[in-house]
Each structure stands twice: as C-alpha cells, then as structure tokens.
Amino acid sequence: MWFFSKSNSKAGALPFAWTPRDHATGHEPMDEDHRQLAALVTEVEAIIAARGDRNEAYRVMDLLVQTARDHFQREEAFMAEAGYGGLERHAAQHAELLATCQDLLRQFKNGTLSGLALPTFLKNWLVPHIQGCDRQFVQELRKVPGRLPLG
Ligand SMILES: [Fe+2]
Ligand SMILES: [Fe+2]
Prior knowledge:
Helix content is about 75%, strand content about 0%. The protein contains 6 helices and no strands. It binds fe (ii) ion (FE2) (2 copies).
C-alpha cells in the first residue's frame, strides 16, 4: 500500500517535535492544532518506549485520532470560509488518513499491530502534509489582505 513506502523513510525514526522552521504555516489556529498533534504523537511514543500499559497507549492513540479528526474539520471550515479551490482535494487526503488511522487503531486494539505503527504512520503522513498542502493553503490566504487570522 502507498503508505508503507513512506513509513520506511528516515523520518520514521525522528521525533515529531513541532518547530516554527519545520512546521509553522503562519496560521496560528492551525499551528496550535499541529502542536497538539505533535505532543500526542510524542506521548504515545513515550508510553510505548517505556513499555507502558497497552490500555493507556490505546487511550492516547484514540485521543490522537479524535484530535486529528477535529483538526481536519476545523481546517476544512477555514478553507470553505475562504472559498479555497483546493478544499475538495485537501479534504479527500484528510479522509484517507483518518480511515487508515481508524484501521490501525482497530488492529492495535486487537493485538495484531505494534504500538509504534500508528504514531509513526501519522507522523510520516502529517509532516509532509503540513509542509506541502497546509502551507499552500495559507499562502493562498496571504494573497487576500485581511484574510489571514494571526491568532
Ligand atoms: Fe490539512
Ligand atoms: Fe493541518
């Protein structure tokens, strides 16, 4: 499947520590959501690294997926409000990610998947998405004076 090649990249081994240089879009509400997602990925990885309780890992993973869903809805609402032409394509990517995350979450719950699979997949998907598609949307917002909420 398409995401396996991505999860083999070097980025899989890197922590997802949000930094302005690597992850900022310049849209503060979106950046705040991305910081929260990075913190949750880090939290899941820390629980797994400490060989923590699987139930606790599942609880944080579930929260991570819910937080991603909320973030995508918020981001798509910003796009709709701005009349962004790339909304449909962008929303389709969000939907694909969520479907995969739900599947990985289910597999983890069933005990057929390692605890690092979901946070690694999400990180490897999210970082290039923020750097590409999310930043591209904010670039479009900048073209219209007064459109970009500075937070
Ligand atoms: Fe997005
Ligand atoms: Fe985003």
